[in-house]
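Late entry, evening session. Most of the bench is empty. Finally got around to the prediction I had been postponing all week. Sequence below, unchanged from the version circulated by S.P.
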Amino acid sequence: MTEKQAWAVNGFLGMLLLVVLFVTGVYFLILAQNPLLGVLCIVLAAIGASGIFTVQPNQAAVLIFFGHYLGTVRKSGLWLGIPFAMRRKISLKVRNFNSKKLKVNDVEGNPIEIAAVIVFKVIDSAKATFDVDNYEQFVEIQSETALRYVASRYPYDNFKEEGYSLRGNTDEIAAELAQELQSRLSVAGVEVIEARLTHLAYATEIASAMLQRQQASAIVSARQRIVEGAVGMVQMAIEEFQREGFELDEERQAAMINNLMVAIVSERSAQPVINSGSLY
């Protein structure tokens, strides 16, 4: 069911008309000695008064007349609608939903803890009222379902630096989570404004082991960068020697490369050794 505009007139104008109708009824009843017309006017004024209702800012009133959806009034103020129509108020404010910490398995089977905050608002009051039983509860359940689905598609961390990971690509994961949520919540007339991860960690039983793995991976990565930089510096040194006219044979080059690599790669300060003799 799609939202549509309900018939309603300005409430102040409607109250003025009802007062005039009531006064007219009193006039016919007392002064004009026409009780039938007077009672009819008073009854019509009382019936019309049942159609008076108010709409607060950022709120919508869904009008239902004996099981038939009449429409929705979104504009705030005092209104006069169809008498005896039921009015269900729906909040149009932007709201937050903070999910529980869920324990799921990532794509590699590692148990992780994950949670997210969902920012949403109702954009179709008819769908939120009639197409789902309780749209707020529907948002909560579908948010947790979408979060589990997205978390199970990616690894917690990508040690090979290929593809996305939950920890390394938070913006991309948030965008996919919001898209997945929107596809699930459209049936309830809800728009997902933003979805962000608020908690991400390994489960307690593997947290210590995965921390050691992360540390080892960081050490290997750092060593690799140091070696790459050291090789580049050695190449620059040899080229500079050749540019200045110093000719080094293969054995001297090997010795210089060995000394430079040790000095650059070593974690401790290199101790210079002065060779007073010949290399040969």
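Two things to note before I forget:
The helical segments are 11-31, 35-49, 125-131, 135-151, 170-185, 204-243, 250-265.
Residues 218-265 form one domain.
Will write this up properly tomorrow.
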